[in-house]
Design goal:
361 residues; mainly alpha; three-stranded antiparallel β-sheet; two-stranded antiparallel sheet
Length: 361
Amino acid sequence: MDWFIIIASMVKMLAVIAIVMGLATLLTWVERKQSAVMQDRLGANRADIFGLRIIGLFQPFADAIKMITKEDFVPPFANRFLHTLAPILAFAPVLFVFTVIPLGPPLEIAGRTVTGQIANINIGLLFIFAFGGLAVFGSVLAGWGSNNKYALIAGIRASSQMISYEVCLGLSLVGAIMIYGTLDMTEMVIGQSGHWFGWLPRWGLFMQPLAALLFLPAAIAENKRIPFDLPECESEILGYFVEYSGLRAGMFMFAEFVEIIFVAALFTVVFLGGWLVPWLAWDGFHFPWGGMWYLPIWIVKMLEFAAMFIKIAFMIYFMILIRWTLPRFRYDQLMRLGWKYLLPLAMLNLVVTGVVLVLLR
């Protein structure tokens, strides 16, 4: 039994859970505060500890206390088993797919190479497709198990929306698979190393620009965020978790923020070069104009970890910006966008990518 691998896996597992859960908790404050800044108001700033507010940073703790102390009510007419299972199916798959997302570069520890992901498997992207699609069952079972006709309608809407945009989401990533020639997430990042013309990074954003543009709306629709939040918005319908309260309702809401982090991390790995920093090599910066800046290896690794999290933070900011900027679609507009526009464009991208690869090879 290789205890080094076991200990390294346990440390990475705890680190990923701490990072994801901590960042998702912080996002409950970020979304409120960013919307307040955009709307010229103060936002959440009342929660305090001994009079200390720190621009409302204690608000997530107040929300957690409220969720814990609220009554966990199960309607007498609901299916208790399905009612309990639905929030678990909505939350667990989203957290599980982080096992194959590399959150940093490989490290050399005690003569062994430790990757930046919990499970370094060569079918990482296929793993994400398989387990990421399970979240739709949480929405469907929430509507069905509640035995509420409004919740059921919302659950059906959520399932049709998520299945529809899952097709475009998958096809947009197939083009990247064709370019990199691998399903391994770490190898995808390595495949984006190097520069064109000596200065332009070979990131997926520049190799597959149409796929990147298609991925974002499809991912936001999968997450059921504005402008695609019809299954849960108040003005359209009551929502598939209308019969939930307490921690079970909190799991649905918290899963949404975890999905934001996942979408940002996946986009960073596939299209933004992951932990790669322009012009940064293992020994320091090699600038296009010929200059060099030598750095110790530990500083290089710290810069790569920082680059990964800065890119993820930027994508999170961008998605929250969309959340508070765009108006909501009608349901017919939502389905038309997915099937009549995004899907044909995704298929066109595959054809063009295939033709270019054949011509180049």
